[in-house]
UniProtKB/TrEMBL annotation:
Record's subunit section: Homodimer.
Domain of life: Bacteria
UniProt enzyme class: oxidoreductase
Function: Quinone reductase that provides resistance to thiol-specific stress caused by electrophilic quinones. Also exhibits azoreductase activity. Catalyzes the reductive cleavage of the azo bond in aromatic azo compounds to the corresponding amines.
Cited Gene3D superfamilies: 3.40.50.360
Swiss-Prot/TrEMBL catalytic activity: N,N-dimethyl-1,4-phenylenediamine + anthranilate + 2 NAD(+) = 2-(4-dimethylaminophenyl)diazenylbenzoate + 2 NADH + 2 H(+); 2 a quinone + NADH + H(+) = 2 a 1,4-benzosemiquinone + NAD(+)
Pfam families: Flavodoxin_2 (PF02525)
Stated name of the protein: FMN dependent NADH:quinone oxidoreductase
GO molecular function, one term: oxidoreductase activity, acting on NAD(P)H as acceptor
Gene symbol of the encoding locus: azoR
Length: 204
């Protein structure tokens, strides 16, 4: 039995490929692992607020020195971190917006990457504290960015791998559906390839 944290970041409630593929994976995973517990966090339905000066100040104030207002300020971030730490598997549905991720997903990342909480510094440099977990990234994008000239414009997958890896999430499997704006045949090929991978990974 595993606890799965499912994060949806598409602003679209319908017609979202990243939502569709993540849902198919979870459905097949549940069929193979009926004891799994899935925690849903939809960043379009309940957006995570962007960082403010007050939040940053609270983050960097030692726990025992925080004011009541600062303690309240970090409650959401603490809850998001607890969800992350409590999960065995993280499933992220991630559409590409303007070569990168949605601002709501970036806000979530800003709340869970916290010094002393999910990573630490030492003389040897930074070290992630969120280890021993599996991540599945369901990436959707209109163009093809995994190869060719557009590869240098991919600030979606590259950023996620870097940010997640920084806190110790290095076991990352990416299921890409790309070329979705390049005609029906490209869409069919992308979905077919993604679903084939989903069938393999969901049963693992």
């Amino acid at each position: 039995m595993a606890t799965i944290l499912h994060i949806s970041s598409s602003v679209r409630s319908t017609g979202s490929t990243s939502r569709q593929l993540a849902a198919e994976f979870l459905s097949q995973r549940k069929a193979s692992h009926p004891g799994d517990i899935v925690i849903e966090r939809d960043l379009a339905v309940v957006p995570v607020p962007h960082l403010t000066e007050q939040m940053m100040g609270a983050f960097f104030t030692p726990l025992e020195q925080r004011s009541l207002e600062q303690a309240e300020t970090v409650q959401l971030s603490d809850a998001l971190v607890a969800e992350l730490l409590g999960a065995d598997i993280i499933v992220l549905g991630v559409p590409m917006y303007n070569f990168s991720i949605s601002s709501t997903l970036k806000a979530w990342i800003d709340h869970v990457i916290r010094v002393g909480v999910t990573f630490s510094y030492s003389d040897a440099g930074p070290a992630g504290k969120v280890t021993g977990k599996k991540v599945y990234l369901f990436i959707a994008r209109g163009g093809v960015y995994s190869e060719g000239p557009a590869q240098s414009m991919d600030f979606q997958e590259a950023y996620l791998r870097a940010a997640l890896g920084f806190i110790g999430l290095t076991d990352v499997t990416v299921i890409r559906a790309e070329g979705l704006a390049m005609g029906e045949s490209a869409v069919e090929a992308a979905l077919s390839g993604s679903r084939r991978l989903i069938g393999e990974f969901a049963a693992a």
